What does this fold into?
Amino acid sequence: MADNLLDILNQRDDLTEQELLQYLHGNLTPEERNAVEQRLSSSDMMSDAEEGLRMADEKKMQHALADLNKQLSLQLQQQRRKRKHKPVPNQSLIIVTTFLILVLIVLGFLVIYKMKNG
It folds into this structure.
């Protein structure tokens, strides 16, 4: 029974996506075109695939792709904005701390200067 299954799998003669696209765009020789048409007529699945590709209008696909890209861009911008809005430390606290450090440095300098001269 396993041999029968292997035979079935090896006998599949489906067209590739590339072959279907070449067929739809008319990029095949008459002999190749005839062979593809015979394979399409013998397989309902391949016939459905060909019909689906034929129905897919290139402009509609490009429009859909542009819409998807636009939505993705908007989502990325929203994520960037969320990252930029991290809480910033209070500026007045930073200014007061810096001022106190400078005052301590000046006082330390004055104490050392008085000790040497005094």
Residues 5-11 have pLDDT under 50 and may be disordered.
